[in-house]
Amino acid sequence: MSIVAIFINIILFLLLAPLFDGVMRKITARVQSRQGPPVVQPYYDLFKLLGKERIVSARNWAFRLAPPTAFASILTVAALVPFGSRLNALGGRVDAITLVYLLTLGGVAVLLGALASRNTFAAIGASRETVTMVMVEPVLAMTLILGAVRAKSFGLGSAVFGAAGAGTSPSTLVMMAAYLLALQAFVAKQPFDISEAEIEILEGPFIEYSGPDYALFRYAMMMKQMFYAWLFVAVFAPFLRTGFYAGDILAQLAGTLVVFVVIALVGSTNPRLRIDQAVKIYAVLILIALGAVGLAVAGM
Amino acid sequence: MWLTSKIKQVLMVMKPGVVTLRYPFAPRPAPENFRGRPQWDHAKCVGCGGCANHCPARTIMVRDLCQEIRVLLYDGARCTYCGRCADVCPEKAIAMTGRFEQATGDRNDVTERLELFMLTCQRCGRCYDMETPNAVDKLGLTGYRYDSLEARTVLRRATDRFEPKELDATERYERPETTGD
Amino acid sequence: MLAKIAKKCFPRSLWVYHCNSGACNGCDIEILNILTPYYDVERFGIKLVGSPRHADVMLLSGAVTRPTLPLVKKAYAAMPGPKLVFGIGSCALGGGCWFDTYNVTGGGATAVPVDYYVPGCPPRPEAIIYGVALALGLVDKKAAPVELKQVEFPIDIYERNKAWEERNVIYKVLNP
Q1: Rg (Cα) of chain C, in Å, rounded?
Q2: Boundaries of every domain in chain A
Q3: Residues of chain C with pLDDT > 90: what percent?
Q4: Which domains does chain B have, with CATH numbers?
Q5: Residues C40-60: tens digit of each pLDDT
Q6: Are A34 and C40 an interchain contact pair (Cβ–Cβ within 8 Å)?
Q7: pLDDT of chain B along its 181 residues, tens only?
Q8: Residue B54 C-alpha, separation from nearest chain C C-alpha, in angstroms
Q9: pLDDT in tens, B145-179
Q10: Is the C-alpha dihedral spanning A146, A147, A149, A154 positive or negative?
């Protein structure tokens, strides 16, 4: 059963990530008082990109390997995470640090691909993406550390479920606030989407990718968004556990949808911050997250 | 404080609803004085060539095929829809219609071609020929005109009498290559 | 089979790259207009992208001037196939009023193979949306060449007066 759960994980992530992205685009459109694309639009985008010609504009191994690496790393994360509030066969053998490393691998793949493009705009996007990654990944790591401190073990299940396991303690609430504030940075939406995929620097790190490579990058970004929204629900919303596997999955997906609606609303009503302004906010967030971990260590 | 202002902003932007026009699926006609594609009325046109003289893009060509037949070709490719031709026409034969849905894949779809009969004199049976050309009449492009219809070019040549050799000279006119690599 | 699905999804998600080759910005403003909520061309799935490598359609505005001619060709070559080019405005059609000046090479067709033209100076946003809908196959083409004739038949001297009053007018409008 838990081996089948691996495949259910992967299939759910692959199928539903573009749907959630479409919901976000539709909500952004409604906030801007316009009709907007249909909700299944990202599926059309991905299939169309797969059918385009693949132009390799820089003939080095980093350019060619970056999209599959990014996609593979996030797919591995999707296979590992406990879905439906129980671990699957892979998740039981993995600890929380592997999760952080896999996500960092995905980010580094994007950076490598950007720097291998030999394009100035991509270099600017890569430098901004580096700064964002360095300042924002600690918040994710400290969320998992909070659960590990609570449950006294670094295993993936204890790290994810341990944070809220002790009920609504002050450390959990502070960490939830830090995670919510950093959520926009995790999913790379306004006000923190300075690093990638915007018109100011002509799409940033992905400027030279076309066709199937770009489809892989976009798919990886969508699955990353879904992972972060899902993580919020799994860590901080323990009341959504019904005890049945299917019921848990449905409850978790419903929670993820609510988180996506909130992301879309916040994203469409905020301007984009400059990188130096965003760095100041990230520093404050790291301090808040450290405070939460300190509270947990102190026993509260 | 920031949070309440953002919540108020979300509620405020939801109020107008969806304002998108359903345009290609619901018609949306142009406003009244809109200058769309010009339309010649062949019943009123007397073939004076004033529109061709005044077009800023020189996109109306006039050519006399013989003494009695004058061809007016409006090549809408360069037309800027300024309306000067309609303004200057003495017979009010040009109307700037409200047609703006002119997207097409072929440049020749926006052309309009008139063949006009230049009426002959009741007494001598010929079209108007100036016996002695005078200076005033030479100022504008009056007389017989030989613009190139194939190359869509206005050539500023006009003669007082119909000259078949001018017609032959401009028959296969080719526009000179100006730029381009 | 993936190719068939990709071909079916192509008209539903056209990504647009806007290339201004020396325009006065009138057509550019109208192109920006169709991305606003009032005309909202994103409901067809069309998105504005910043890099020609991500784009399917190039919106070309402006008479192609001499400095921009190689750049427009480079941007067109950077787009992955299948690709379309829309020429927006009368400058992209045939050079506008400046078609024979010293700096203008004469319209979009000198640089790239243009698939659809949208005439106007500048074209109304509805006209550009009409062009987009025409490319997607949602509407029929309305532009057609018009040919009008006013040729009188040869008359003899006894019917000159009658012909003077009633002109024989023949016209036909060609609709391909």
Answers
A1: 22
A2: 2-297
A3: 29
A4: 29-169 (3.30.70.20)
A5: 888 899 988 888 888 999 999
A6: yes
A7: 678 888 888 888 888 888 888 888 888 888 888 898 899 988 888 888 888 888 888 899 998 887 777 889 998 888 999 999 999 998 899 999 888 888 888 888 888 888 887 777 666 666 666 556 666 555 567 778 888 888 888 887 888 788 888 888 888 888 777 654 4
A8: 12
A9: 888 888 888 887 888 788 888 888 888 888 777 65
A10: negative
Searching chain C, which residue's CA lies closest to the CA of residue A34?
C37
Q: Is this prediction's pTM over 0.80?
A: yes
The answer to whether the beta carbons of residues C54 and C81 sit under 8 Å apart is no
Pairs of residues, one from chain A and one from chain B, whose beta carbons lie less than 8 Å apart: 23
With CB atoms and an 8 Å threshold, state whether B6 touches A33.
Answer: no
User: How near does any CA of chain A get to the CA of C41, in Å?
Assistant: 8
Specify the pairing of strand B158-159 against strand B144-145. Answer: antiparallel
Strands B60-64 and B69-75, sheet pairing: antiparallel
Pick from A48, A55, A201: which is nearest to C6 by CB? A48
Give the ipTM: 0.80
The C-alpha atoms of residue B26 and residue C102 are separated, in whole angstroms, by 44
Contact state of C43 with A57 under an 8 Å Cβ cutoff: no
| Average pLDDT of the residues in C15-21 | 92
Contact of A184 with A190, CB cutoff 8 Å: yes
CATH of domain C2-136: 3.40.50.12280
Test mutation, C2, C9, C31, C57, chain A, max A CBs within 10 A:
C9
Residue C175 with chain B: CB contacts under 8 Å: none
* Residue spans per domain, chain C: 2-136
Q: Write down the H helix ranges in chain C.
A: 2-9, 26-33, 69-78, 89-94, 125-136, 160-165
Which residues in chain B belong to E strands, given as ranges? 38-40, 60-64, 69-75, 94-96, 111-117, 144-145, 158-159
Nearest to A254 by CA among A16, A42, A76, A41: A16
Of B73, B82, B104, B112, which to mutate for an interface test with C (greatest number of C Cβ within 10 Å)?
B104
